[in-house]
Write a structure and sequence with these properties.
InterPro entries: GrpII_AminoAcid_Decarb, PyrdxlP-dep_de-COase, PyrdxlP-dep_Trfase, PyrdxlP-dep_Trfase_major, PyrdxlP-dep_Trfase_small
CATH superfamily of the largest domain: Type I PLP-dependent aspartate aminotransferase-like (Major domain)
Number of helices: 10
CATH class of the largest domain: Alpha Beta
Largest sheet: 7 strands, mixed
Radius of gyration: 21 Å
CATH architecture of the largest domain: 3-Layer(aba) Sandwich
Number of strands: 13
Cofactor: pyridoxal 5'-phosphate
Bound molecules: pyridoxal-5'-phosphate
Keywords: Lyase, Pyridoxal phosphate
Protein name: Pyridoxal-dependent decarboxylase
Number of domains: 2
Family: Belongs to the group II decarboxylase family. Sphingosine-1-phosphate lyase subfamily.
Structural class: alpha/beta
Length: about 350
């Protein structure tokens, strides 16, 4: 079942003949394996088994990269995104030095839901000879279908020659039960790089494709069943519904005086705020009305990651949002920041 899942999904991401992939427990494990593969390939290439290469990330990249870097004792350079909230490729290029081993772009980033300019990052990666990882954990199983139904999603996968690895979570917009993520590598490379290949104990050679040892088969079987059930047609239909719903939310939010969407969200994650509003107060108002508001800090805003569960609640949400904004506006100047 895992082989069939990987076969179907590698095809979706335009994996070349020699590309390979594996299922993991989640985005964090997929990212950890990609960082390890990149570090080990760089060490082998340099002939320096102790090389501490650095990672250059947009400020919006998921903390799973820092987690991986922390475990492997690698330095991380987080680079501010541009005014459009997407990775600033020129600034990332300026941060690359002789010890840089990895560049990262997200599809989309979690805080604002915008896709990074992967074609330009691929060019940068090729010109600096640095590994490019695409973190499509949240949108990997949504973005290809958004493009197929006519939305402007740029190339982001192995079609781009600089992309060396890609993570995509089935248990997010693949609509599969947890735990289910995928990680892919452009070239097969040694197992020891992509996973673990150890010969250290009386029981002999010990290889694992992922970080963990024993793995739950339920997530694999669940993903296999969902992929076969939905098929590409099913995912296209979901993408159409999700994006129609997103457009309606965006229009409703922008119709509330004082609010604006942060950047131009590409899928169904968005953040919004208003320069004259205390978004902590707006969130407190939403919280008092029974919602569980997510927030972003910079620029201050409310955050929403929307699935089809949010389809029927749009009118109630927007009317409560309008009331919370009106309340916050009249209270401006006071210091009510408690939200949860
Ligand atoms: C962009 C992105 N990357 C990675 C992850 C980590 O995934 P997981 O929580 O499955 O480990 C997330 C989780 O939300 C994410 O949004």
């Amino acid at each position: 079942m895992e082989e069939e899942v990987i076969g179907m999904t590698l095809d979706l991401f335009h994996g070349p003949e020699e590309a390979t992939g594996t299922m993991t427990s989640g985005g964090t494990e997929s990212i950890l394996l990609a960082v390890k593969a990149c570090r080990d390939a760089a060490r082998a290439h340099r002939g320096d088994a102790m090389h501490r290469g650095n990672l250059v990330l947009p400020s919006t990249a998921h903390p799973a990269f820092d987690k991986a870097a922390l475990l492997m004792d690698l330095p991380v350079r987080r680079i501010s995104v541009g005014v459009d909230l997407r990775a600033d490729v020129a600034a990332m290029g300026a941060a690359v030095d002789a010890d840089t081993i990895m560049l990262v772009g997200s599809v989309p980033c979690f805080p604002y839901g915008v896709v990074d300019p992967l074609p330009a990052l691929s060019e940068l990666a090729l010109s600096c000879e640095v590994w490019l990882h695409v973190d499509a954990c949240v949108g990997g199983y949504f973005a290809p279908f958004a493009r197929e139904v006519g939305r402007p999603i740029p190339s982001f996968d192995f079609d781009l020659p600089g992309v060396m690895s890609l993570s995509a979570d089935l248990h997010k917009f693949g609509f599969c039960p947890k735990p289910a993520s995928t990680v892919f590598f452009r070239t097969a490379g040694p197992v020891a790089e992509r996973g673990f290949d150890l010969d250290v104990w009386p029981s002999g050679r010990f290889t694992t494709a992922t970080f963990v040892g024993t793995r739950p088969g339920g997530g694999v079987a669940g993903a296999w069943a969902v992929l076969n059930h939905l098929g590409r047609e099913g995912y296209r239909a979901l993408a159409t519904r999700l994006l129609t719903m997103r457009d309606a939310y965006v229009a409703g939010i922008e119709a509330i005086p004082g609010l604006q969407i942060h950047g131009v969200p590409d899928l169904s994650i968005l953040a919004f705020g208003g320069p004259k509003l205390d978004m902590g107060q707006v969130a407190a108002g939403m919280s008092a009305r029974g919602w569980v508001p997510g927030m972003v800090r910079e620029p201050p805003g409310l955050h929403a990651m929307m699935s089809l569960l949010h389809e029927p609640s749009r009118e109630a949400y927007l009317s409560d949002l309008q009331a919370s904004v009106a309340e916050a506006s009249t209270r401006s100047g006071q210091s009510i920041r408690a939200v949860y």
